Amino acid sequence: MGKLIVIEGTDSSGKQTQAELLYEKYKKMGKKVMKVTFPNYESPSSAPVKMYLNGQFGKNVGEVNTYAVSTMFAVDRYASFKTIWEEFYKDGGIIISDRYTTSNMVHQASKMDDKGEKDGYLEWLTDLEYEKMGIPKPDMVVFLNMPTQMAYKLMEKRKNKITGEDKKDIHENDREYMQKSHDNACYIANKYSWKEIMCVKDGELKTIDEIGNEVLRVCEELSR
Ligand SMILES: Nc1ncnc2c1ncn2[C@@H]1O[C@H](COP(=O)(O)OP(=O)(O)O)[C@@H](O)[C@H]1O
Ligand SMILES: Cc1cn([C@H]2C[C@H](O)[C@@H](COP(=O)(O)OP(=O)(O)O)O2)c(=O)[nH]c1=O
């Protein structure tokens, strides 16, 4: 069996940048490695997710059934596992995943304020994806802790990943939601012992390389 490394964080925390950097470093080191991204917008399995992010099930995040939406993201992951990386992973390859089940944990559980409800949802979700659907559990989750104010600055520079336009998706449009998902991510990172990397030091954003070196350092624990 291979290893599954997940790069997680709130929107515009540098996941794509760091997942690519780690992938390049591993390739140079001669490791058998593959990079995957969720949602997998290139696959038809992401169609319901696109409808959700475009606001077709409700313009506000809070209006949409969390369990229904979580299942849509889970199905997209299952499709990717079965058609793209199952064999590679079972053959001992390292998978670097930009988002995973952990994104449902960060984003969908943030809609729940009640701790009992949140924990119940997390149990339901991990059982659904890892046990019932049977997709692999991550060996390592790297959590890029990017304060919301800084994430906003970075987001302004970047285009929408689905349309390539300046328009933001329903999560990105909602500042209160962004703050809540960051608070929730910190709670979950602690609960599930994710490897946390602080992206800001003394109010200043760390460089891409500084963060990249920290990511590599924590991931090296896997090969020990
Ligand atoms: N440490 C950093 N310093 C400066 N810019 C960064 C840093 N990390 C990411 N960026 C830039 O911020 C934007 C969002 O990063 P990205 O990797 O796409 O985030 P995510 O995948 O989490 O949404 C991109 O334009 C990226 O180049
Ligand atoms: C993969 C995944 C994403 N999401 C959310 C996180 C994002 O707000 C949104 C779209 O993902 P993405 O396009 O990666 O967002 P961004 O580029 O802004 O980081 O979908 C979930 O709620 N559950 C999931 O399983």
Unreliable spans are none
Structural class by helix and strand composition: alpha/beta
Q: Mind telling me the C-alpha Rg?
A: 17 Å
CATH class: Alpha Beta
Strand order of the largest sheet: 2-3-1-4-5
User: Which ligands does the model contain, each kind named once?
Assistant: adenosine-5'-diphosphate, thymidine-5'-diphosphate
The number of helical segments is 8
Q: What is the number of independent domains?
A: 1
User: Which architecture per CATH?
Assistant: 3-Layer(aba) Sandwich
| Mean pLDDT, all residues | 93
Shape category: globular
- The CATH topology assignment is Rossmann fold
Pfam families: Thymidylate_kin (PF02223)
Domain Thymidylate kinase-like: 7-186
Enzyme class: transferase
Function: Phosphorylation of dTMP to form dTDP in both de novo and salvage pathways of dTTP synthesis.
What does this entry look like structurally?
Phosphorylation of dTMP to form dTDP in both de novo and salvage pathways of dTTP synthesis. The chain is of the alpha/beta class and 224 residues long. It has one domain: Rossmann fold (3-Layer(aba) Sandwich), CATH 3.40.50. Helix content is 50%, strand content 14%. A five-stranded parallel beta sheet has the order 2-3-1-4-5, sandwiched between helices. It is globular. Bound molecules: adenosine-5'-diphosphate and thymidine-5'-diphosphate. Adenosine-5'-diphosphate (ADP) is lined by residues 9, 11-17, 154, 157-158, 205-208, 211.
